[in-house]
Design brief:
It is built from 18 helices and 14 strands. The chain is of the alpha/beta class. It binds uridine-5'-diphosphate-glucuronic acid (UGA). Uridine-5'-diphosphate-glucuronic acid binds next to helix 9.
Length: 441
């Protein structure tokens, strides 16, 4: 098949690369000339393990190409994947302007009967609007069939996930489109669930909302564990052994970030609200997450009431490991607050520092390594559980004036930190070597 992918963000890039990997002829189109130039040379605009290798291989094999021209990309294609962004509007709803533009571009440039596959996360019912917008602007007398095909890939393991996913959702009213999509996706060897369009669209939101709920739930449990002196790691383990609950997404921390959970939870609240339905549970999930992102600042203030002039190392800036994505990362809130309070902030991330420079407060300084950031700092805050950060040993913190580690991802064992006399505060676990801070009045 000849396939066009509109949008080369995380979703579009991975979709394009993996479809070419299973033997399809794929052209990815994006309006950003600089980005397209890079991609033509096999340089991925995002950090995603395995993506560059897959891009290069399929570029060389002639199955994958990139262009800024919609005319060139959409001529004579059998299917078009819409993978443009749906950012958040001020009221939390999804902004569909890029999707609308993609529809117009499709309508003006396709020359064959085409299957339109929506990968972008869009509010329930949007695929019908997509069909209507395309039909309204079509230049030729062509048939189009619409398919909702939400993606469930995780950043950082998107290539692996494509071939090991739990399911592929195909939402369509068209038997013909369903058959083509089932055939097309067969080489991924992933169970396919076929359903109607609105249910497919809802599956995406409901899945992300449910996973976010699990995270906020365990984060609330962790806060209660701290008050009780219990250990959330043990609690999560014991809970997760119940197959009805499952062990995944029960990692307590400083809340969820990224381009999906924060945006999709708010959008689903808005979708329900538009129908006069108050999604109370999900509102709670969002509020818990907002509170949780400031947890490390509260813990730090309990140890160092006045951080003005103190050197604070912030290890891990991306919203999670194995990505350079800074969107909705807790590091934004944490570093902003520290700078506001007059601290000297030294950030480090193994991969996301370039992106961090354009997102974080300009006063944030950057270290070449975790060791450099830690050295002579008054406190170390751990925000992302990169392997490189997890493998630091307690002795690595000995270069601090008075070792104080506040860990938002529970990277280290309480016993190790205790044995090395490091003051250590983590999430939902008892503090270790806690010093009593006396505030002089
Ligand atoms: C998420 C979903 O997992 C994907 O299925 C979905 O396709 C994607 O959103 C999307 O909608 O496009 P992603 O945003 O890449 O994927 O990240 P996750 O691995 O799900 O992590 C999200 C956030 O939750 C991170 O900040 C992570 O640190 C946090 N998290 C995750 C926890 O705090 N605890 C956990 O137990 C799991």
């Amino acid at each position: 098949m000849k396939i066009a992918v509109i949008g080369t963000g995380y979703v579009g890039m991975v979709t394009g690369a993996t479809l070419s990997e299973i033997g399809q002829e794929v052209v990815c189109v994006d309006i950003d000339e600089r980005k397209v130039e890079k991609m033509k040379q096999g340089i991925s605009p995002i950090y995603e393990p395995g993506l560059t290798e897959m891009m290069k291989k399929n570029l060389e094999a002639g199955r994958l190409s990139f262009t800024t021209s919609h005319r060139e990309a959409l001529r004579q294609v059998d299917a078009v994947y819409i993978a443009v962004g749906t950012p958040e509007n001020a009221d939390g709803s999804a902004n569909l302007s890029y999707v609308e533009q993609a529809c117009k571009d499709i309508a003006r440039n396709i020359t064959r009967d085409t299957i339109i596959v929506t990968k972008s996360t869009v509010p329930v019912g949007s695929n019908y609007k997509i069909r209507d917008t395309i039909l309204m602007h079509l230049l030729h007398d062509l048939q189009i069939e619409i398919v909702s095909n939400p993606e469930f890939l995780r950043e950082g393991s998107a290539i692996y996930d494509s071939f090991h996913a739990d399911r592929i959702i195909i939402g369509t009213d068209s038997e013909k489109a369903a058959a083509v999509m089932e055939n097309l996706n067969a080489p991924f060897n992933v169970p396919i669930f076929r359903t109607d369009i609105k249910s497919a669209e809802m599956i995406k939101y409901a899945s992300n909302a449910f996973l976010s709920t699990k995270i906020s739930f365990i984060n609330e449990i962790s806060n209660i564990c701290e008050l009780l002196g219990a250990d959330v790691e043990n609690v999560a383990k014991g809970m997760g052994m119940d197959k009805r609950i499952g062990p995944q997404f029960l990692k307590a921390g400083i809340g969820y970030g990224g381009s999906c959970f924060p945006k999709d939870t708010k959008a689903l609240i808005q979708i329900a609200g538009n129908l006069d339905y108050e999604f109370q549970l999900l509102k709670g999930v969002v509020n818990v997450n907002i509170k949780q992102q400031s947890l490390l600042i509260e813990k730090l203030k309990r140890c160092i009431p006045d951080v003005a002039g103190k050197k604070i190392a912030v290890l891990g800036l991306a919203f999670k490991p194995e990505t350079d994505d800074m969107r909705e990362s807790a590091s934004i809130i944490v570093t902003e607050e520290l700078i506001k309070q007059g601290a000297r902030v030294m950030g480090f991330d193994p991969v996301a520092m370039e992106n961090a420079r354009s997102v974080l407060h300009p006063d944030v300084e950057y270290a070449e390594s975790a060791a450099e950031a830690i050295q002579e700092s008054d406190a170390v805050l751990i925000l992302t559980e990169w392997q490189e950060i997890k493998k630091l040993s307690p002795t690595d913190f000995k270069s601090m004036t008075r070792p104080l580690v506040i860990d938002g991802r529970n990277c280290y064992s309480l016993q190790d930190m205790k044995a090395h006399d490091i003051e250590y505060h983590s999430v939902g676990r008892p503090p270790v070597n806690e010093r009593v801070t006396t505030v002089l009045t």
